[in-house]
Write a structure and sequence with these properties.
This protein has about 90 residues and is an all-alpha fold. The chain has a domain of about 55 residues.
Length: about 90
Amino acid sequence: MAKSTRNRKKAVRKVGRPKAGGAGSPMVVRMHKPQLKALDTWIGASDISRPEAIRQLVTWALAHGKTQAPVEAPINIVKRVRENEARRAG
């Protein structure tokens, strides 16, 4: 009897989207328009993406410690954005 020509050691091709590379954990961050505008301004003419810019800013902030309070508390930013949206709508 002849041997089978089928190779059983060959990996079975999986169906679906391929896994994303990298060892990091994905992080979903919601940002308001003023924050995105400031981020895009900070990026400027450099050839980096928004996620890379956020990584660089977080790295810088952690390296410099908590020596200075934020310019504006996050809750105040949200309130201001909502007020501006209400003014535009009404």
